[in-house]
Design a protein that fits this description.
The chain has about 200 residues and is an alpha+beta fold. The protein has helices spanning about 50-55, 85-90, 185-204; strands at about 1-10, 20-25, 30-40, 40-50, 65-70, 100-110, 125-130, 135-140, 140-150, 165-170.
């Protein structure tokens, strides 16, 4: 097992091509990307890790920001591309600071590999502030996240989030419209087409 290793306090040590490749020793069978984000300040630490360290909760009393930890199990996989947790945060945390609920409600889930977005497993979330769309992000036919979103995020290219060329970002309007496989707009269109066909049959 081999992972990237670096410690970056905003000075570029973990930038593409700067991190060092290190062999993992002992029972270290995961590559870790550990980040502390406090406003404009971001501290990043990448290295080999024990699997048990990846599931722990970390608190950094000196900083008021959030801690993001992602682990992976393939060689050199901690190369800095956004993990699914970061992608979920990208949609759920923008435009929400000190904002009130706006009446929109969306299906919500973040697939961390345990079927969180499978049918029947997702929950509901109340949107706040300028979050005026419900979003589904899929990759290779698998739903990665559902939730509230700013409209401008619906037009982002999935590849810029570290997803594959098969990924897609689909947004819709209306509460819980992202709770089905077919976006609400598509479902409505299908319903109208079927209704029109029935009317034609009756007229004949």
């Amino acid at each position: 097992m081999e992972c990237y290793s670096c410690y970056d306090r905003g000075t570029g040590e973990c930038a593409q091509g700067n991190a060092t490749r290190v062999p993992c020793v002992g029972d270290m069978n995961r590559c870790m990307d550990f980040s502390v984000i406090d406003g404009a300040q971001k501290i990043t630490y990448r290295t080999c890790a024990l699997e048990t360290l990846c599931s722990q909760q970390y608190v950094v009393p000196q900083l008021s920001g959030r801690v993001e930890i992602s682990c992976c199990s393939t060689p050199l996989c901690n190369d800095g591309r956004p993990g699914i947790k970061s992608i979920c945060s990208h949609f759920s945390e923008q435009g929400v600071k000190r904002k009130n609920e706006n009446g929109l409600e969306c299906a919500s889930c973040c697939d961390l590999g345990n079927g969180e977005c499978d049918s029947g497993n997702w929950t509901h979330v109340k949107c706040v502030g300028n979050q005026n769309k419900c979003v589904n992000v899929t990759d290779g036919g698998q739903t990665l996240l559902r939730g509230c979103s700013l409209e401008k995020l619906c037009w982002e290219k999935p590849q810029l989030l570290g997803l594959s060329q098969n990924a897609s970002i689909q947004c819709c309007s209306g509460s819980l419209c992202n709770g089905s496989v077919v976006p609400a707009g598509g479902a409505t269109l299908i319903y109208l087409l079927l209704l029109g066909a029935l009317l034609i049959v009756q007229l004949l």
